[in-house]
Amino acid sequence: MTKLHENGIEILKRLNDASFEAYFVGGYVRDTLLGLPTKDIDITTNARPKDLETLFKKVIPTGAAFGTMSVIMDGVGYEITTYRKETVYDNHRHPNAIEFADTLEEDLKRRDFTINQLTMDKDGHIGDRFEGLKDLRKKRIKTIGTPEERFYEDALRMLRAFRFVARLDFSLEENTFKAIENHRELIRKISIERIQEELFRLFDAPHSQKALKAMVKSQVHETLFGLEKGIEILSETSMAFQKEVAFACLSLFRDLTQGPWKLSKKFTQEIKAIKALHEKTMNKAFTAMDVFTYTVPIAHKANTLNQMLGAKDQATDIDMLDKRLPIRSPKALNIKGSDISKYVPISHNKQISLILNRLLEEVVERKIDNTYETLLKRAHEHLNIIEWSHKNGK
Ligand code: ATP
Ligand code: MG
């Protein structure tokens, strides 16, 4: 038994001892039954937030308005949520009022999919009110209740459905699929941050192609603000990819720096780098300078993108180029701008960084040695070339 599980059982026992009902619920139960790794445990209980405050020393109101409190044990947070029902939905997302419920049944009914309403009590007994075990066996994602209503209430559930397909290698149950087809336009009403988050998780999951195929079939990809062409390509590739490559592919057909997309600066920079290197190497060999400038991880990602678009694999070349790099940072060049400026007329000062770049490239490409004497000699040659081309108006 893992420490995560053991501590979770302690929490259930403490609640039971105070005569409250309490169960593990949702992802943890589902993933444990499927033999998949788990990282956190959600607990559902009829204890109210104020009861939890008296029962546990360390409790943080992470979502007190929604009845969620976190209890920390050995550095891990357990989300304990009071039984609730969701009443009125606002704009196809987020209940705008929540009401505590008295029974487990009511709480489970408001959950999205049958496989996400399984419970486990302190003795390991599984509770299953809505045929979740059957759907686990049949490997399918099926809403609890009428799919049309459940997606109309909360459109994010449609993207969650695809995410679970991608993660679990499941299929969408027929009526669930049809309801997604019917309500797909509501996806446009979800906040862009939530859409991005779901796409990140989908792209990083092991069976993302399967989910993307279902997305294309249901035409959901057309509701995703310019991503349709990119998603079609991703759905057809046999390459495994990470979310950075996926977004670089999407960015070939839609400028993702434009609204409504709101990707972080850091992520945008990475996809720009992958895209730039892809454009350079799609029909050409990677060079040592490419690997040096963009780094090996980016080179491999560009190589994946190239292959998705029909180019040949250059992975072993990239690794070889990397292994043979004589230096790994511009700082390792054995000459400085000041070493060169001593020898050149002041009018040439602006040429110095240009010369340093050329020297760096020649060292990286192993055309010259990285010794001071060689570099200085070569710097003079470059100066002559520059002077010559200036004189000739080039
Ligand atoms: P993961 O492994 O990705 O965390 P999870 O099933 O635990 O999967 P969470 O987003 O952590 O997913 O949500 C926990 C549980 O809360 C779900 O299993 C489900 O029962 C319920 N739930 C979450 N989001 C929704 C939603 N939009 N509509 C209905 N129920 C939801
Ligand atoms: Mg979870």
Total of helices: 19
CATH superfamily of the largest domain: Beta Polymerase, domain 2
Number of strands: 13
Q: How helical, in percent, are the residues?
A: 40-55%
Q: What radius of gyration results from the CA coordinates?
A: 29 Å
Which outline best applies?
Answer: elongated
Number of domains: 4
What compounds sit in this structure? adenosine-5'-triphosphate, magnesium ion
Summed up, what is this model?
This protein is of the alpha+beta class.
Would you kindly provide a written description of the structure presented here, covering whatever features stand out?
The chain has 394 residues and is α+β, with helices and mostly antiparallel strands. It has 4 domains: 1-138, Beta Polymerase, domain 2 (2-Layer Sandwich); 139-236, Orthogonal Bundle (Hydrophobic Seed Protein), CATH 1.10.110.30; 265-323, no CATH class; 332-391. The chain has 19 helices and 13 strands. It has helices spanning 3-17, 27-33, 49-55, 104-109, 132-138, 147-153, 156-168, 174-183, 192-203, 208-217, 228-236, 243-251, 265-281, 288-294, 296-308, 315-323, 337-341, 352-364, 372-391; strands spanning 22-25, 42-45, 59-63, 68-73, 76-82, 84-86, 89-90, 93-95, 98-100, 119-120, 126-127, 140-141, 171-172. It has a 7-stranded mixed beta sheet. Strands 6-9 form a two-stranded antiparallel sheet. A two-stranded antiparallel ribbon has the order 7-8. A hairpin with a 4-residue loop joins β3 and β4 (68-73). α11 crosses α12, α12 (243-251) crosses α13 and α13 crosses α15 (296-308). The radius of gyration is 29 Å and the shape is elongated. The N and C termini lie far apart (74 Å). The relative contact order is 0.06. The model has no long low-confidence stretch (mean pLDDT 94). Bound molecules: adenosine-5'-triphosphate (ATP) and magnesium ion.
